[in-house]
Amino acid sequence: MKLDTDVPFGALCQSRDQLKAAILDISLLAIPHHRDHDFLDSLHFLAPYQPGEATPPAEQKSSSSRDHCPCKTAPKFSHSGPQTLRLAKIHECTHYLAVSYCWHRGDVASEDAADKFRIRTAEGKERLAWAPTAILKRAIEYAIHYNIPYIWIDQDCIEQNDREGKIAGIQSLDLVYRRAEYSVGLLRETLRSQRHIDALLAIREVQRTVTAPYASLPEVDWEAICELLEHLATDEWFTRSWILQEYALAKDMRLLVKCPPDLNFSTIVQVGQGQVELPPKDFELEDIGHQYIAGGKSDRLSFDRLLQAIGSTNARPVCQPLGTFGGEEERFGTNASKALWYLRKRKNTRVQDRITIIGNLCDYALRLDTRQRDLESHSFSVTLLTLALLNGDFSLLFSEPDKSMAPKLSDSWLPSPSTAFDQVRGLGDLGDTIRFATFGISARGLSCKGFITHINTQIDMAKIQMLYCTEYQHLGAYGNRRNSRTRQELDIIVLSEVALTFEGQGCHILADLVRTWIHSIGNSASQSTIKVVNGLPDAHSRARRLPWLIDRVMNQSSLWCGTFGKDPSTGEPTAIFDASEPELVFTPYSESFKSRPRSELLDLPISWVIDPSQLSLSGGTDSSSSGWQIGEKAPINCVRRACGIFQTSSAIPESFTLAWPPYNA
Fold first, then answer.
1. Which of 101, 226, 445, 565 has its CA 20 to 30 A from that of 414?
2. What count of other Cβ atoms lies within 10 Å of the Cβ of residue 411?
3. Are 304 and 223 in contact (CB under 8 A)?
């Protein structure tokens, strides 16, 4: 498999038939992903070895509370202990240290066997440790410092000679790091300069000061802080794909950095001799940097350098709660577009491993069997798209190009031909964890549940156009940053007028939807800065303008609306879409429609105008006539993307198949 995320999607296959055949072949490799509780119960951990010990006390039923967990009385690591460790089982106990590090096959091969740790297996046999001695010593030092009785380290805790066990372990690594009460990343780099240590102390002081009420901002050497972050970013730990997964899914991944003992560490936490601990908070400097810019204590050039350095050391997707698994494990994940964005600068040996990593980062219910050789012959981008669609993750369809304000929106359930996956990141408004109700890809198309809305009511907005069109022309259409505040205030005024117009036409639900949006704009405007993520303004902040709706009012002096889906509970319109005439719009269904706050579901870029030739409308064209009938199981054709805001209310989703779209190779 070749990593082809730099190739435009339209160039990945020579024809629609070739692309269709590839997606269908890949979909046949989909398998359900169950939390392998047998695997979790069989997990082994490194523990101190006490000669003559029979049944280790911690191998009993454990508790989530440290005070009541048998591991509280388990033997602890010590500096005087023998260089022999044992593999222990700890059923359901989470009080262990998960270690994240880069390892090379040559590390162990170059070691003297006499210096290596020995591992005593559950069967009472002894073998040499597979993990490098230096790594084990650093991990044990950390465990001693925090009084942790167990260590999980993949090289020694996953049976390397058991192929099936290794595969199960790889598929469940996300849960190992998510469950761990302690996790640490072992960096190879060394902080050799007192200047870097002083910069670290300055970070801690600034973070302490800015949280204090009425405190003035202390003077900070931002150049030294940038140098520190840039130095850390050279560590290969920040370049590995597997480590991104560990970093993103761990509860609180700390970093352990080597440094000479003759430096002055002051209040910095030292772990043993020659190591300092860096919590994630040390890299959370974005908002602080904004405060220094606003207070005139830092220049824009230094701030841009700081952002780039932060992006190199703290670039990871924030995995959001997905609910519980089987009523037990809390699940966390992101979406494919965001996972791919953060992976773009990371590397790994086998390209198809990225499919597993993204599956773990997104916590997909369906995975692809990466053991099958058939998968290796397919395009990585097509494989990832197939996996995402099978799991109802549409984020790869609704992405925006890097360093651009204009989104690339596909006209169907395939990406636009010009889209290259390594140049896009998901629109923030789609949400990290929204999954749509898809149930397979077949020769007929993509099957999913959803709603068809008949947009058939035109609301006149000519008065608003006449009052404000000139002002918008004066401000400039988009992107004039100097006037962004004025434009935002004008947006609120115009949207308020739109809400009043809807109210006057008896469209109370639409008026309420627009007012909810106005409230969300107000909350965004109350923030003094625009949040920046890895050098890109947050997409959610940019989309707050509802530009498509305002453009319709200013350019066409009207808005088109209708009743969302087949909703019998209301006699008035419940949806506005980006339309210039009566149209039919398909919106896929998500369980999130029931649970997420309404403000998060407004203006999701998830709907398509569909070809009405296979649908027959019943009734007239007023707002109460939204009946339609679909031909006998005929797939529906998507024509173009349609932005919109809507209220799902009591609308009932139905099953549809979206036809295979044209493919421009």
1. 565
2. 16
3. no
Indicate if the pLDDT at residue 295 is higher than 90.
no
Q: Is the pLDDT of residue 62 over 70?
A: no
Neighbour-count burial of 161, counting CB atoms closer than 10 A to its CB (0-12 exposed, 13-18 middle, 19+ buried): exposed
What's phi and psi for 273, nearest 5 deg?
-95, 125
Q: Average pLDDT of 496-515? A: 94
Residue 474: count of CB within 10 angstroms of its CB: 10
Token pair, residue 373, equals 């050789």
Structure-token match 């994630």, residue found: 280
Average pLDDT over residues 68-85: 81
pLDDT at 539: 38
The whole-angstrom distance between residue 170's C-alpha and the CA centroid of its chain comes to 19
Domain ranges of the chain: 37-180, 186-313, 449-659
- Count CA within 13 A, CB hemisphere, residue 572: 13
Amino acid at 465: Q
Q: How far, in Å, are 210, 578, 606, 620 from residue 609 at the CA level?
A: 49, 9, 11, 20
Q: Which residues, 6+ apart, have CB-to-CB distance to 390 below 8 Å?
A: 27, 30, 366, 438, 440, 441
Mean pLDDT of 606-624: 64
pLDDT at 4: 93
The answer to whether the Cα torsion of 493, 494, 497, 503 is positive or negative is: negative
Report pLDDT for 19. Answer: 93
Confidence at 620, pLDDT banded by 50, 70, 90: very low
Share of the chain above pLDDT 70, in %: 76
Distance of CA 288 to the CA centre of its chain: 23
Q: Which pairs with CB-CB distance under 8 Å and at least 24 residues apart come from 407-410? A: 407/605, 409/605, 409/641, 410/641
Q: SS3 string of 437-485?
A: CEEEEECCEEEEEEEEEEEEEEEECHHHHHHHHHHHHHHCCCCCHHHHH
pLDDT of residue 176: 86
Residue 130 CB coordination number (10 Å) = 20
* pLDDT at site 135: 94
277 and 204 Cβ atoms separated by less than 8 Å: no
Q: Is the pLDDT of residue 324 over 80?
A: no
Give the residue carrying structure tokens 């022309």. 473
Three-class secondary structure assignment of 295-318: CCCCCHHHHHHHHHHHHHHCCCCC
Pairing of strands 438-442, 445-460: antiparallel
Mean pLDDT of the region 176-193: 91
Q: One-letter amino acid identity for 50? A: Q
